[in-house]
Amino acid sequence: MKRKNDRGFPDRNAIVAFIKANQGNVGTREIAREFGLKNADRIELKRLLRELADDGTIKKKRHTISEPDSLPPTLVADITGRDSDGELIASPTEWDEVEGGEPPKIRIQMPRRPKPGTVAGVRDRVLLRVEPTNEAEGPAYRGHVIKVFDKAKSRILGVFRALPEGGGRLVPVDKKAADRELNIAAADAHGAQDGDLVSVDIVRTRSFGLASGRVKEKLGSVKSEKAISLIAIYAHDIPLQFSPAAEREAEAAEPANLKGREDWRDVPLVTIDPPDAKDHDDAVHAQPDDDPNNRGGFIVNVAIADVSFYVRPGTALDRDALDRGNSVYFPDRVVPMLPERISNNLCSLVPGEPRGALAVRMVLGPDGRKRSHTFHRILMRSTAKLSYAQAQAAIDGRPDDTTGPLLDPILKPLYAAYACAKRARDERDPLNLDLPERKILLKSDGTVDRVIIPDRLDAHKLIEEFMILANVAAAEMLEKKSLPLIYRVHEEPTLEKVHALAEFLKTLDVPFAKSGALRPALFNRVLAQLEGHDHFPLVSEVVLRSQAQAEYSSENYGHFGLNLRRYAHFTSPIRRYADLVVHRALVRALGLGEGALPDSETPETLGEVAAHISVTERRAMKAERETVDRLIAHHLADRIGSSFQGRVSGVTRAGLFVKLADTGADGLIPIRSLGTEYFNYDEGRHALVGTRSRTMYQLGDVVDVRLIEAAPIAGALRFELLSSSSETAPRERRPSGPQRRPSIKAHPGRSPERKRKPETQKSGKPKKGKGKNKGKGKKGKAW
Predict the structure, then answer these.
(1) Among candidate residues 165, 258, 179, 163, the one with its CA nearest the CA of residue 211
(2) According to the model, what pLDDT value does residue 24 have?
(3) CB 504 within 8 Å of CB 684
(4) Angle made by CA atoms 154, 160, 161, in degrees to the nearest 5
(5) Rounded to 5 degrees, what angle do the CA atoms 714, 717, 719 make?
(6) 3-state class of 217 per DSSP?
(7) What is the number of helices (H) and of strands (E) in the chain?
(8) Which of 20, 49, 18, 50 is nearest to 35 (CA)?
(9) Same domain assignment for residues 411 and 520
(10) Cβ 12 vs Cβ 49: under 8 Å
(11) Are residues 271 and 325 in the same domain?
(12) Secondary-structure breakdown of the chain: helix, strand, coil percentages, each rounded to the nearest 5
């Protein structure tokens, strides 16, 4: 094969052949080294690789180049069945079918003597190490099981409905299985009463008629205070009880003391959290820098609960924490990652009590940029516990008995340091998406009282910005010490999604000129241009859906949303396992004593941990979202026939999804109910268009709807579209060309600055509280 052309540059076919021969392990650097390219050739190489990616010859993801539709070396997969030889076949759990078509098949190779925890079966979710087979027929990959996450379910969760003749039926809580009821004989009901939430083992299936089941566990009445969140907990196999060994270790733990620690008990650190927070894992302090070489600069101290001191590698506490991956926050309860004695007691930075912490001291220049940082293992004593609203009220001139004495010595320096840090943040220009987060307030009986949108205060932004600075400092320190770590990464949007966004914006006459490297500022300019315009909610939704989802990885490919080259989670070890790993790595890197990351941890083993906790994070997000859907469906169940105003939040071939303005509830308007004419699905416009009238219903449209049906257990609502007012009337589809409506200009008198919402879901729907943590407002931000 010809390796170079007449100009001495490598031939396209030679580059493609090299990528294929080194699947998953090739980047620009490796290609340049293979073909002896100098720095002057790098621009030409990047241009050629971009062309190959654009025409689908190769796939460029992160810093890795591979064949199209190739898989990473380690991934989470679901075992879907067996082939004709009886071998297990799996598919990737996360796969973008729009971008990559059908997910590739993986043949599972089981060793003769599998290790404990690696024996898998059909419908199991597993962590695999995969490699291409390079075979002409059969699956393109073979995989080796590293770990089995979830054993296949033969148990179903549902509501028992008693029958007059005895026994009953099980109505599954899963939306997808809601129409597949089970028959439960009287002898198999085991005392279940009508309306009880029960788990049922399938005991017999039939070709015709209902399958049969046996009640295995009664979880209480579906009308009880805790039932709604229990549905999600059991449906997603979220561990509810800690192992006895973990509980014993938690009870035996001793409070931290000065041994091996610096004494920071006189530093006036304060915690700022929502008023109902139960644990406090971060405290902050700031003061002007008295260094004459840094006039106008600040010293910012961020102290984080020292969880690594209590949760040592290989212990029962560690195993339980890794299994959970993160805490899960429901409106009525928290399923914590760590036992209460650790999370709410020994590690919580409560006022007046000595607590162990891992602190970072950061020096900010007058331009807001971090000049230096140092890490310290300390013993601290929080000066005060403040809420966001309380701190903000004091700064706004309304101090109370607690904040009054703190205003001048503590709060004003904190806000001044934040104003300084904000200069660098604004210059960095991270992705600015203004997507308000709703919070459900419950009555004493656990039912919904009302849904509110909490005010977005500078107090929130202050804490968030200081946490970002601390997270960056942790990643930089560990890279400097050449220690493995788990990064928080966020990939830039794919070329396909950027192209789809550009095509959509073209229908609105909104310019979207991409030149050079993709940056968040490109999307920010679009959003700023539409500030205050009717189309702003629509465009915000589409921009959100163009973004990738953040995840954990032992490989660093940056954080696109925050516009940062390196980023790690360090500031919430009470509720996230990733942060605990980073704490251990810092303890090891800086020789800070006990609880260090073991020498056995490598980028490969941490890659497996990162894949696992990315899955548990998404599990938590889905459980939290479903619980909110069910609570609101219960809340609206007695309002059948009522009218509401909402906004179209999704458009599919099945119909329109509408989000109600007052509660944020989502429901479906089936396409068959839109009228007598046929409606086409216009994917580019995110719209349904009538074939006869050219009436168009588009993502972001404001509509009036009537509630027709509510299914509280499934969390599903069905609406019908009412006759639209002139304000909400569907638009007629406009022709292209000169007759199109004039381009949209920036709204006068509005600031282009928006609230930040950098991390997004790959599914394309806005996050409904990644950490819908009761009392964890700043932790709810997916930093």
Answers:
(1) 179
(2) 56
(3) yes
(4) 135
(5) 160
(6) strand
(7) 17, 34
(8) 18
(9) no
(10) no
(11) yes
(12) 30, 25, 45
User: Quick one: 417 and 298 in the same domain?
Assistant: yes
| Beta strand extents in 653-760 (DSSP E only) | 655-660, 666-670, 679-682, 687-690, 695-698, 702-711, 716-721, 731-732
* Overall domain count for the chain: 6
What is the model's pLDDT at position 60? 62
Confidence band for 373, pLDDT divided at 50, 70 and 90: very high
pLDDT digits (tens, 9 = 90+) for 636-680: 988 999 999 998 888 999 999 999 988 888 999 999 898 888 999
Domain range enclosing 79:
74-149
Work out the average pLDDT over 435-464: 87
Do 279 and 273 contact (CB within 8 A), yes or no?
Answer: no
Percent of the chain with pLDDT over 70: 83
Looking at residues 246-267, what average pLDDT do you find?
A: 96
764 falls within a domain: no
| Dihedral sign from CA coordinates of 600, 601, 603, 606 | positive
Same domain, 603 and 458: yes
Inter-residue contact 478 to 666 (CB < 8 Å): no
Domain identity same for 81 and 121 = yes
- Over its C-alpha atoms, the chain yields an Rg (Å, rounded) of 28
Task: Report the predicted TM-score, pTM, of the whole model to 2 decimal places.
Answer: 0.76
**Strands 448-452, 439-442: pairing kind:** antiparallel
CA distances from residue 263 to 1, 409, 466, 723 in whole angstroms, order as listed? 67, 20, 22, 68
Residue 218 belongs to domain with CATH number: 2.40.50.700
With vertex at residue 598, the alpha carbon angle to CA 596 and CA 603, rounded to the nearest 5 degrees, is 115
Q: What is the DSSP letter of 462?
A: H
Does the structure show a pLDDT above 60 at 768?
Answer: no
- For residue 267, being part of any structural domain is answered with yes
Q: How many CB atoms lie within 10 A of CB 312?
A: 15
Distance CA 509, CA 590 (A): 55
**CA–CA gap between residue 20 and residue 113 (Å, rounded):** 32
Write out the two tokens for 561.
């949303």
- Termini Cα distance of the chain: 48
Sorted by sequence, the CB contacts under 8 Å of residue 27 that are 6+ apart come out as: 63, 64, 65
Q: What value, to the nearest 5°, has the Cα angle with vertex 37 and ends 31 and 38?
A: 130
Give the span between the Cα atoms of 79 and 87, in whole angstroms. Answer: 11
Mean pLDDT of 403-409: 97
* pLDDT at residue number 769: 38
pLDDT bracket for residue 247 (50, 70, 90) = very high
Q: How far apart are CA 728 and CA 534, in angstroms?
A: 11
Residue 414: per-residue pLDDT? 98
Whether the per-residue pLDDT at 97 is higher than 80: the answer is no
What CA–CA distance (Å, rounded) separates 622 from 614? 13
pLDDT at residue number 374 = 98
Do 417 and 364 have their domain in common? yes
H helices of 194-315, where? 227-235, 244-252
pLDDT per residue over 540-571, tens digit each?
A: 888 988 898 899 999 998 999 999 999 999 99
Write down the pLDDT at residue 67.
57
* DSSP 8-state secondary structure symbol assigned to residue 326: B
302 and 370: one domain? yes
Same domain, yes or no: 610 and 716? no
Measured N-to-C along each axis, helices 388-395 and 458-480 cross at an angle, to the nearest 10 degrees, of 110
